[in-house]
Amino acid sequence: MSTVTGVPGATPKYTKKDFESDQDVRWCPGCGDYAILSAVQKSMPDLGIPKEDIVFISGIGCSSRFPYYMNTYGFHTIHGRAPALATPQAGPARAEGVRGHGRR
Fold first, then answer.
1. What angle do CA 60, 76, 98 make, to 5 degrees?
2. Would you say residue 91 lies in a domain?
């Protein structure tokens, strides 16, 4: 059952705001990560995937704070472990995993 519509099998109708978390974004002023975060939050509703079926997995570094800034499931791992955790074995078979990382 969709937790958004309350109707079994219904496709959730999300907006960008639904994917914004209540966390203060702590990147440096002018950082390109702001644009990436905004673009991902804006594009997520178009995928039509229920939020409870989405997980963002990251490693270390500034860009790896990404899971905290998305209102979805997320996991912040140690260096080099994001690929291993972003495999189908890391969650339910229906979960959509997204791995993100970067270097500064």
1. 100
2. yes
Residue 40 lies in a domain: no
CA distance 8 to 57: 28
Which phi and psi (to 5°) does residue 56 adopt?
A: -105, 130
Strand partners, 100: 58
Instruction: Report the number of distinct structural domains present in the chain.
Output: 1
DSSP 17: G
pLDDT of residue 75: 86
Provide the Cα torsion 82, 44, 63, 61; round to 10°: -30
Which residue range forms the structural domain that includes residue 100?
48-104
- For 48, list phi and psi in degrees, rounded to 5: 70, 25
Positions in the chain whose pLDDT score sits under 50: 1-2, 90, 103-104
CA pair distance 15, 67, nearest whole angstrom:
18
